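Entry 14. Ran structure prediction on the chain below.
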Amino acid sequence: MTKTAGLRGLGLLLLTSAACVGTAPPHAPPEAATSRDAATPPPPAVAPSPDGARALDVTREGGVPLVEVPPRWPAPGSRLMVPEVRFPAGFGKRRIYLDAGHGAEGNTGTRSVTCEDEEVFTLRAAEDLAQRLEATGHFTVRLSRKAGARVPYAQRLAEAERWGADVLVSLHSDSRGLAHTWSPAPGQECFRQDETPGFSVLWSEDATPPLQTRRALLARALARSMTRAGFLGYDGMDYTGLYAVDTAQAGVFVSREPTHRQIFVLRKPRIPSVIIETHHALDFEESARWREARTLETFAAAVAQGLVESFTVPKE
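Output, structure tokens:
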């Protein structure tokens, strides 16, 4: 998405604009030490676990045995569980139009904490996901663009409908909150904000009731599957005024007319469509995790299972 840190929940391609442009706040200086620092109690003792994670020591009072507290996504060592994808009898083969977000003329998306353009990440993630979905034998996938191509969004939607896609899934990475500048490498400067990790899935209510239902079902199934796999759903603290919380499923947010964002790939398709904001691109640890093969493998299996459930679970 074309988002600039410093604006809250900067999201996506709007119907009326190819890019959302904002300004970032000045570099946030380190907080000065205060007298409270001296009064801060020492952290609890820790003990290593067999897999290298650290565990809270609750023996300090009462002699209770050590209890491991596993690290939470996206901390190093936090575990993802690759779900088993189960296809019911008669599922057949479904057509998935997979949009690698951005990549239109003048629309490279946001820049990550390592100064990578969003369009580069989304194409890499979409190509990997497409291969894994195709490998199941139950999905035929068409990508919205190839490396170096500048494809308008209207052209993508027209192609998806001509091809007869069952659903449209658009991949993006998010940028949220108030970020500060930093240098990940000599000669580079971009934004960083490590406080709001997590994925989100977006859908629009701007549709007929039957299409609304199918969009909601798809978004909720994908978010539910990603959560089960160990991904953290974003709480939406920076989405106020942009999207509404979908109370049926954590990690899902709704664009409602006329007050919320009018996002082209959400409101225009006549087939179910969602955006998956895979992660917070300005979070250093989370961005690093999305370069791991295990993350991509888990994501693909979670998406596959979410798609299966959206096609087979009774409408909500």
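Residues 2-59 have pLDDT under 50 and may be disordered. Will compare against last week's run tomorrow.
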